[in-house]
Specification:
five-stranded parallel β-sheet; alpha/beta; about 140 residues
Amino acid sequence: MKKDRSVLLAEDDENDVSFLKRAFGHAEITNPLHVASDGQVAIDYLSGAGEFSDRNAYPLPGLLLLDLKMPRKTGMDVLRWIRSQANLRSLPVIMLTSSVHPQEIAAAYETGANAFVTKPSGTPERTELARLIKGFWLSFNQLP
């Protein structure tokens, strides 16, 4: 596993953040996990604005887990912004959502999402998702 590759989780629900952190622990993911509490904070983090200007403390992530429905800027707003930034176009983005609507899935892929995942509801399923993220996105996937 590429331990230096950090993960940014853009998620406004504190319970979902806690559940994912716990699942990462169960899956033995040791990569640094940073959390953006809404879409605008995610953009600020990725652009290195304000408090996020120190790239040693807030490195560009190797993977973004992006909640679809967040305040201030939605996941789709963030995804559109990312794909318009030359230095972020190749950032792998996994969209996360609590509900599945075919038009949201299609729009996410058309905008440049690399994956679209319904948030698992149980601990075993969340842990399995974390293991799959660890195996593919953090271990085998090569970034430019």
